[in-house]
Design goal:
- The chain is α/β, with parallel strands linked by helices.
- It has a single domain, classed as Rossmann fold, CATH 3.40.50.2300.
- The protein is 40% helix and 20% strand.
- It contains 5 helices and 5 strands, in the order βαβαβαβαβα.
- The chain has helices at residues 13-25, 36-40, 62-72, 90-96, 108-119; strands at residues 5-9, 29-33, 50-54, 78-82, 100-103.
- α3 links the parallel β3 and β4 (78-82).
- The longest helix has 13 residues, at 13-25.
């Protein structure tokens, strides 16, 4: 794999840590953010090749983060993770432009396949 920057945005520290460990084992450069606001205010947003984000977060959810990113230019591909019932957010996922939606707990094999497919392009 290359050293592409993958940004993880999730208010749950244990999720950030687990996904970080997986991505680093794949050779990715990883930056973690405890909120959408923290990511949007960072310089990492301009260098991120892929975002892996929770949907339900305090203050600003993942969908709102994607909307704000679109206002700044073409957003990087986004993979959403959620503990929400997947069928209740299907329309929002399609409108968000996300490349994938994964339920929590995240299936590491599926996440690895998505990352490989989108970072090897």
């Amino acid at each position: 794999m290359n050293a592409a920057l993958v940004s993880i945005v999730d208010d749950d520290a244990s999720i950030r840590e687990a996904v970080t460990d997986l991505l680093r084992s794949m050779g990715c450069n990883v930056r973690c953010f405890p909120s959408a606001k923290a990511f949007l205010e960072s310089d990492s947003r301009m260098h991120t090749s892929l975002i892996i984000s929770d949907i339900a977060m305090p203050a600003m959810d993942g969908f709102e983060m994607c909307e704000k990113l679109r206002l700044l230019g073409p957003p990087p591909p986004t993979v959403f993770m959620t503990a929400l019932a997947l069928d209740t957010i299907e329309n929002q996922i399609q409108r968000s432009g996300a490349i994938a939606l994964l339920g929590k707990p995240v299936d590491a094999t599926r996440l690895s396949q998505i990352i490989d497919a989108h970072l090897s392009k």
